């Protein structure tokens, strides 16, 4: 660790001991500017008016004052002081202290002991109102950090555009050295801005978690306070002090029962509200009649639909047969062998030339002209299949 690091660490220890006399490990945001001014006071001891200097500039002082006034109950921990200082001022705490470094400065700080408390008679606020104010302060801090974050992102995007243009112009070896130096400078600035952006993102995430924790604590305290208030009012109405032990125990049970009833009523109201929302979102559907399977079949398969499918199937079969007959006829015209010439002399009816129509015709002819016994139908079918090799 260098002398500068030792000086800055020792300076922070001396001033922190003087401010945080209770040893809580943190100071409130309203004391942040006081910590910086106390450091300046210690570092400027023994210096004349012309030699006196400040850790931050005028703009930095305004930023610190605004932070102290806006974030009065924001907790600044000792280990986070340097990071917060860098985030608010834009300069590291080490570099700010380095300007005051001189001969014997480290020895002077080691001999410096500040024991005066700036809050001898002040109590740390721990009630629910203080928690609520701290939550509001955290919200304001987060909004400011998000705004600052968006501005930094805009600056980074503009720097990236300029950097891209410089890279395009310096892509060839003929680029000027000055442009290359400017490009490297911009790259360093972009890297610094990215680091600052990551730091601010970390602070925002940490404050979000702290805000959530504070909100949960506030809600818990509120529920406990309301519960105690209801219990006090209940026992006050029932005159608890003038009753025997048995009646007191019964009164206690009555209070528990009343609390359970209240919770049931709250849940019932919540369920009713949810039911109302669900019913308001329902889509009105047409009422459907209760139909049996037998009653629904005619609706699904009406007579017109059945006839349409039958006629379509007949036309499809006829079209296929006509197409096949035409193909066979054209083939016979192109080339006929002796067996085909012999078969061509046999004149068949048009429906006999189609195997499907011929089978249908002979099936119905045999069925109506010959008195078939239904019991012998399977035997005839088996003989037919055996005869024709089916």
From TrEMBL:
Gene Ontology cellular component list: cytoplasm; nuclear membrane; spindle pole body
BP-aspect Gene Ontology terms: protein localization to spindle pole body; spindle pole body duplication
Keyword annotations: Coiled coil, Cytoplasm, Cytoskeleton, Membrane, Nucleus, Transmembrane, Transmembrane helix
Coiled coil: 204-231
Location in or out of the cell: Cytoplasm, Cytoskeleton, Microtubule organizing center, Spindle pole body; Nucleus membrane
UniProt keyword annotation of Transmembrane present: yes
Membrane topology: Single-pass membrane protein
Ranges annotated as spanning the membrane: 309-330
Pfam family, one: MPS2
Domain of life: Eukaryota
UniProt record similarity statement: Belongs to the MPS2 family.
Function: Component of the spindle pole body (SPB) required for insertion of the nascent SPB into the nuclear envelope and for the proper execution of spindle pole body (SPB) duplication.
Protein name according to UniProt: Monopolar spindle protein 2
């Amino acid at each position: 660790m260098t002398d500068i690091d030792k000086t800055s660490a020792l300076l922070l220890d001396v001033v922190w001991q003087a401010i945080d006399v209770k040893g809580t490990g943190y100071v409130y945001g309203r004391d942040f500017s006081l910590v910086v001014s106390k450091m300046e006071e210690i570092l400027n001891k023994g210096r004349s008016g012309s030699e006196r200097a400040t850790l931050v500039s005028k703009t930095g002082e305004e930023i610190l004052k605004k932070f102290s006034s806006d974030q009065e109950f924001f907790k600044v921990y000792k280990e986070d002081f340097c990071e917060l200082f860098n985030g608010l001022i834009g300069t590291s705490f080490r570099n700010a202290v380095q300007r005051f470094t001189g001969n014997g400065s480290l020895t002077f700080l080691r001999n410096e002991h500040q024991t005066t408390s700036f809050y001898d008679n002040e109590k740390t606020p721990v009630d629910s109102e203080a928690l609520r104010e701290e939550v509001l302060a955290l919200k304001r801090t987060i909004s400011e950090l998000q705004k600052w974050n968006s501005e930094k992102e805009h600056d980074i995007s503009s720097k990236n555009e300029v950097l891209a243009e410089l890279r395009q112009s310096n892509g060839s070896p003929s680029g000027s050295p000055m442009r290359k130096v400017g490009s490297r400078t911009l790259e360093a600035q972009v890297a610094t801005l990215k680091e600052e952006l990551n730091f601010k993102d970390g602070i925002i995430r940490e404050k979000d978690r702290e805000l959530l924790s504070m909100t949960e604590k506030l809600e818990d305290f509120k529920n406990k306070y309301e519960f105690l208030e209801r219990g006090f009012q209940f026992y006050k109405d029932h005159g608890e002090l003038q009753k025997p032990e048995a009646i007191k125990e019964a009164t206690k049970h009555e209070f528990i029962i009343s609390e359970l009833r209240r919770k049931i009523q709250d849940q019932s109201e919540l369920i009713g509200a949810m039911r109302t929302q669900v019913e308001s979102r329902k889509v009105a559907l047409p009422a459907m009649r209760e139909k049996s399977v037998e009653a629904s079949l005619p609706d699904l398969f009406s007579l017109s639909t059945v006839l349409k499918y039958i006629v379509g199937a007949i036309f499809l079969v006829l079209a296929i047969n006509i197409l096949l007959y035409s193909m066979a006829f054209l083939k016979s015209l192109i080339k006929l062998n002796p067996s085909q010439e012999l078969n061509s002399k046999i004149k068949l009816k048009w429906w006999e030339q189609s195997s499907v129509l011929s089978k249908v015709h002979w099936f119905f002819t045999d069925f109506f002209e010959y008195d078939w016994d239904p019991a012998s139908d399977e035997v005839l079918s088996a003989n037919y299949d055996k005869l024709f090799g089916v």
